[in-house]
Structure formats: C-alpha cells, structure tokens
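Hey,
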Amino acid sequence: MQADGMTDEDRIFLIQLEELRLNQLRSHTLGDAREIVARAEALGPKRELEHAERDRQAAMRLEGSARRKKEEEEFRRLEELRRQEEERRRQEEEKRRREEERRRKEEEKRRQEEARQEQARLRAQPQEEAERRAREQAEQRLREEAQRQERQRQEELRRNQAQADIVAFFQLYDAKWQELKLSKNLTSVMLCEMPWPIFQQGCTSPDDISRRSMEEFIFHPLRPRMELKSRKDRLKVEILRFHPDKFNSNIVHKLRECDREKAIEIAGELARMLTHMMAEEIQNETGL
C-alpha cells in the first residue's frame, strides 16, 4: 500500500489502460489516414482530369490574353501609322495650299504691276500708243493682203495644174489613137487601155459611158487643136473613129481576143450616141 492509496497493480493497470487508449487512438488515426488515402486514390483520375482541364483553360486564357495583347498592339501600331499618314497628308495639303497662295499672290502682284506699268505708259505716251496700234493694224492688213495673194496664187497654180492635167489627158488620148491607126504590130491591147471619148479611165462596159460625159470630153475648151473647130467638126472626128465599119476592120483585131466582143459593143453604142448628137447639131443649125 502506497501513500496515495494506489498499489503497484493499480498503476500497472492504469498504464495498460493508457496504452490501450493510445493504441485505439493510433488505430483510429491510421484508419482515418487510410480512408483519406483511399478516397484520394479513388478521386485521383478525376482530379487529374480537373487539373488538366484547369491547366488547359489557364493556357487558353494565357493564349487569349497574349493574342488580345498582340491584337491590341497591332491595332495601336496601325492606328499610329494611320495617324502618321493623315499627318503627312495634312502637312502636304498645307504645304500645297501655302504654295498656291504664294503663287496666287505673286500672280496678283505681277498683274497689278503690269496694269500699273501699262497705265503709266498710256498716260506718259498716248501718241506712241496710237502710232503703235496704227502700225500693228497696218501690218495686219499687209499680212492679210499677202495671205490673200498667196491663196490666189495657190488657186491659180491648182487651176493651171488641173488645166495641164486635162491637156495631158487629151494629148494621151490622141497619141493612143495615132498609135492604133499607124502601128501594125499591136495585137494585145487591153480593153481598159482603149481611148474612149470620156475623162473616166478603165471603161469596160457601155454602161460606163453617158452622153453627158461624152459632151464634156468632146466639147471641152482646152482640147488641143480643136479650138477653132465647130461642134459638128468635133463630133465628126469621133464618129470616124468609132464607126462600126472602120472600127471593126481597123481597130478590133489590135485588141486582145477576149476583149474584142466587148470593144465592138462599146464602140457601137458610142457610134449611135455620136450619130444622134450630130443629128441634133444639124437640126439646131437648120432650125428644123
């Protein structure tokens, strides 16, 4: 028996009770830990997915934030470029406006100076101005007269050239007939080369010849060696050339064979028209 009333056995019993309590406590604590570990192991894949999703969303937020930041920076850069461009255009426009204003003022100043000088000159030298204007008017009249004379000269040259061309055409016409009459070697004259009594060249059909065109040719005042011949005499010259008897016997065989029939047709029509014209001339002379 101890002084506190507890025996050694009581103390041993108390110690064993404390150890039992501690063992139970440890057992409960270990069980709780195991349960926590088990629950953690059960939730592990799900939490990994959640963590992965959170990581992915965080990465997306970071990426989106970086993209927005980049877009904002690009927008600010473009805005700055646009502002710089507008500023450059504004400065250029301002520079152009100032330059135009400067030129306008200079032009206005020049005009005012010219007007002032002109007024001063008119006031100081009215007689000289009148003489100058008179001199200019006289020079203008001389220029106009010279131009008129030059136009007349050119017109005269054109008339002379036209007359020379007409005379040359008649000379060629007579030369062709002279060759047709005298040459004995001609056998291949083309129809378009034949001298017909019209100014049109290349006649190939009776339809190409009209009475008006014949009269213009036969009675033309510039026809050489015909100036003193009467209208009947001129018609007689052509009738003798195209009369069927003479033309068919003396001229036709000098054409190409393929053109002879058409030449006879044209000459026959010419002879009929010339004979009718001669009859009218005789009727006009006799007054019948």
